[in-house]
Input
Amino acid sequence: MAVALGDTPHVQPTEMKESTEAKNFHPGPPSSCPLPSYLDEDEDLNMSSNSAMTTKELQEFWRNVKNPRKPVKLLFEIPSARIEEQQLSKYVMYKIVVIKSGSYDDKKVSIERRYSDFERLHQNLLKDFSEEMEGIFLPRKRLTSNFNPEAIRERKAAFKEYLGSLYSFKCIRWSFTFMAFFTHPELKEAHSCLRGGHYAKAAQLLLPVIDLQEKVTQHNPKLLVPTLCALLICYKDMEDSPKAFEMGERALSLLCRNRKHRYKCPLLVAQIDLGYELGFDITDLQAELSEIQATQLNEVSLLSLKELVIQEFTD
Output
């Protein structure tokens, strides 16, 4: 359409404002925030700087660039409970399912705990986190009707809320006391079986513990090393060397940057023996062990891996 001299084409004010913002705003990545590897840098930066994104959208874009991974959180479900009757006691066992949120979790590990276990957890946490625990309450003890279906339903809901409240505090969910609530009884029983030479039973108990530990020790994966080493010992004494070596590989991968960990040298020695038995190339393992032994002569553990594992839970 021809425009007469002196006339100007009609432009909506909002369109002019948006086009001006898009033209003049050219964001660049923050110098301290490298792009995640899965982004094509040229393509994504051109897209963000040339498109008519609002300021809010651009801020959200750079937040995602800076933190491309969403933190994995845990959910606690208590789907069922059962009444346990023994010769001199009767109590309710609550089934706790620990689930990763934000992604599909195919390992919904479960444990069972009774009221006294929750009570012990609460008292131990109060010693270190009294301020954080001010608004967190444990369901009250009942003198009667503990086994009433309605009372059990109420307890299930209360315990679910209780665990979620504890988990909301980083200092609590990263504490040894909180993590031990989910793994200590099973680990103690498994190590008792291991010391007694019942390796198949010990392995059966340890495998679900590994899945659970992976969830509650996300902040410090090295905490899985003793359990993986216990499984290595179980499989080795069950003469399943391939599985034993696999457990050792997983443990070593968690210690790749930690040469002073008390399990590092005994684990390397065990892996070298297993690798030699299986016909694997163990040159790198031998070189790493020799280097550690040469540079940390007085700090290297003289105990075997089995001796270290047996020392766990001997209190």
